[in-house]
């Protein structure tokens, strides 16, 4: 919710998520025994949920929550991000003043406090960074404090992971270290979140994560929640300038489903423009987005066509359509990385990122709007 001193026509809402908050709570209420991989389509509300969770648990004295948002940390030079950059966000050099930023929740973002001497040794390869982290966990445990580590936007490491053998091995090592900290020595709770289910799955497959981790999906809101929100704009978004009819609310649900970011965006447009106009324009935009992504690539077109008559697809469904394996292997990851498709790592299925993408695909093929 917004700061009361500032006056806006619309505020960020926070709808429901009772079940998810309870599930996260029970995850940290048992002794650490696996890594929790939080996944879900683009903008489904993972980060917001995690911040809310933080808000709830940070008041507890017996927890030490370290929250690392990799998108925030690594966005400066995304193409050149390397493992050293990653290390520098993990470690917060204490004797260099003001190096640590603060999150709104008031938590230090540098994961582990070290002095510059240790940092130098880590960089020179003389001190094992994992040992430094383990020591910190042990120190906290001895004080009766439960360490909780949350790494958000894991996909920001994509470049490091894909780059070269050594860097990639270090990430795998990091995850294997997380396995040791959870499943083996039960020292810390570790949660990792990303919208790139495909990337999560790669890390999962390449490290020793089987039977050492659990997937948790944060999906778009369901119809009941969305309708409740749209019927009560004043309550949830503090919108006083207009209300929506039942029919309008139905149309919004039909176009974007429970995609919170898109609902919020549409609501902001209704101040100035008639609802039908906004929705039609949005459909055009989605059609354009798909057309732009496909460009002149017939192979992409063939792959996306499958979603005209199915909601989700397994790899074998693309194969059945006669699409060559090499194309599937090249294009599916590209579609996931470009947020056209979402890959659900638990079910191993691919589907359009949301209802609006489904509309975009349909309109692209039938030429309407
Ligand atoms: N429960 C909710 N109710 C209403 N709005 C929400 C809710 N959760 C998130 N939002 C809004 O949706 C937008 C996207 O949320 P958020 O950034 O948390 O998604 P995300 O899943 O972390 O996205 P990404 O896939 O990019 O990491 C934000 O503007 C946020 O305010
Ligand atoms: Mg996020």
Brief summary of the model shown:
This protein has 369 residues and is an alpha/beta fold. Helix content is 51%, strand content 12%.
Structure report:
The chain is an alpha/beta fold and 369 residues long. The protein has two domains: 18-217, Rossmann fold (3-Layer(aba) Sandwich); 287-366, Arc Repressor Mutant, subunit A (Orthogonal Bundle), CATH 1.10.10.10. 51% of the residues lie in helices and 12% in strands. It is built from 18 helices and nine strands. The strands form three sheets. Strands 2-5-6-1-7 form a five-stranded parallel sheet, with helices on both faces. Strands 3-4 form a two-stranded parallel ribbon. Strands 8-9 form a two-stranded antiparallel ribbon. Helix 1 crosses helix 2, helix 10 packs across helix 12 (246-256) and helix 12 (246-256) packs parallel to helix 14. Mean pLDDT is 86; it is low at 96-109. Magnesium ion binds at residues 46-47, 152-153.
């Amino acid at each position: 919710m917004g700061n009361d001193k500032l006056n806006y026509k619309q505020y960020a809402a926070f709808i429901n998520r009772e079940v998810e908050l309870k599930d996260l709570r029970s995850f940290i209420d048992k002794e650490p025994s696996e890594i929790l991989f939080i996944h879900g389509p683009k903008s489904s509300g993972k980060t917001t949920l995690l911040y809310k969770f933080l808000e709830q648990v940070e008041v507890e004295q017996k927890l030490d929550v370290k929250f690392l948002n990799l998108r925030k940390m690594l966005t400066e030079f995304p193409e050149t991000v390397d493992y050293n950059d990653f290390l520098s966000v993990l470690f917060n050099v204490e004797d260099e003043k003001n190096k640590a930023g603060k999150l709104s929740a008031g938590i230090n973002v540098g994961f582990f406090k070290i002095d510059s001497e240790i940092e130098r040794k880590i960089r020179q390869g003389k001190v094992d960074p994992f040992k430094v982290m383990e020591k910190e966990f042990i120190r906290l445990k001895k004080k009766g404090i439960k360490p909780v580590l949350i790494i958000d936007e894991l996909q920001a490491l994509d470049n490091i992971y894909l780059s070269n053998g050594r860097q990639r091995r270090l990430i795998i090592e990091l995850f294997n270290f997380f396995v040791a900290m959870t499943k083996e020595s039960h020292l810390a709770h570790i949660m990792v979140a990303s919208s790139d289910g495909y990337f999560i799955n790669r890390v999962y497959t390449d490290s020793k994560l089987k039977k050492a981790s659990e997937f948790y999906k944060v999906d778009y809101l369901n119809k009941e929640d969305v309708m409740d929100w749209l019927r009560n704009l004043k309550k949830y978004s503090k919108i006083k300038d207009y209300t929506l009819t039942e029919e309008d609310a139905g149309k919004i649900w039909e176009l974007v489903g429970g995609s919170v970011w898109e609902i919020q965006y549409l609501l902001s447009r209704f101040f100035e423009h008639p609802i039908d106009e906004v929705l039609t324009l949005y459909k055009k935009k989605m059609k354009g987005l798909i057309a732009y992504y496909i460009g002149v690539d017939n192979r992409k077109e063939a792959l996306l066509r499958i979603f005209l008559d199915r909601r989700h697809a397994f790899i074998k469904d693309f194969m059945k359509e006669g699409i060559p394996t090499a194309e599937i292997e090249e294009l599916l990851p590209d579609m996931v990385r470009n947020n056209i498709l979402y890959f659900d790592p638990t079910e191993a299925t691919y589907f359009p990122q949301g209802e609006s993408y489904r509309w975009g695909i349909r309109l692209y093929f039938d030429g309407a709007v």
